[in-house]
Design a protein that fits this description.
five-stranded parallel beta sheet, three-stranded antiparallel beta sheet, binds BIS(adenosine)-5'-pentaphosphate
Length: 210
Amino acid sequence: MNVIFLGAPGAGKGTMAEVVTAKLGIPSISTGNILREAKAKGTPAGLAAKEYMDKGELVPDDVVIGVLKDRIAQDDCQKGFILDGFPRTVAQAEALDKMGVKIDKVIEIDIADEKIISRLVDRRVCTKCGASYHLKNKPTNVEGVCNLCGGKVEARVDDQPDVVLSRLKTYHEKTAPLKGYYEKKGILVTVNGENGIEATAKPILETLQG
Ligand code: AP5
């Protein structure tokens, strides 16, 4: 089962990917997490990505496609995977098709722009494993410490309101057209992402398990 999570920044892609990984046992691949790790390590891909990520712009397609190709070639992806944050442009979706990757379902998590800022301002993320928390909706058991790996949990640099607005603009211009791309293929399923975490996860799990 190969699944794509599509949605605006803060829609809940990473949170829902965690739920599905725990239920279905397939890995979740976040290009955002991979690029943040590469940036922290100062690798060539990380250095190429930094200036774009810090401004809330998309990293060039060739860099991200290369990163994704390497990741899905790993052994743990042989029985399927969840893509969280890839593809983000029609060129990236076409690259997946050219790689021969068959996508079974694309889950669009729908949320109004007005709700995004408050979600992201209160988001906290594990600097080690990338797990996503929220001060009110999903707090860590111990303040500042990841429940899953014990890593340090903190706010993301691109979650400041001005950068979030730039990310939202980029989403509407470059990524939202993918809805039409996958609707034409008959594999797009849209869920309401404005309900609580469990209420949003329910229809997603029903779609993927049914
Ligand atoms: P990335 O890390 O992918 O950021 P994003 O797409 O902007 O998505 P987020 O991680 O911000 O949000 P999310 O939807 O995962 O929300 P979350 O589950 O955390 O990318 C960062 C940057 O990397 C990009 O800007 C770009 O520069 C670059 N990049 C990455 N991929 C790229 C690509 N393919 N091409 C080019 N560039 C790329 O939830 C948000 C908060 O809400 C959390 O606090 C969570 O606890 C809470 N929450 C979640 N769901 C609910 C719910 N249902 N109810 C209440 N609270 C909820």
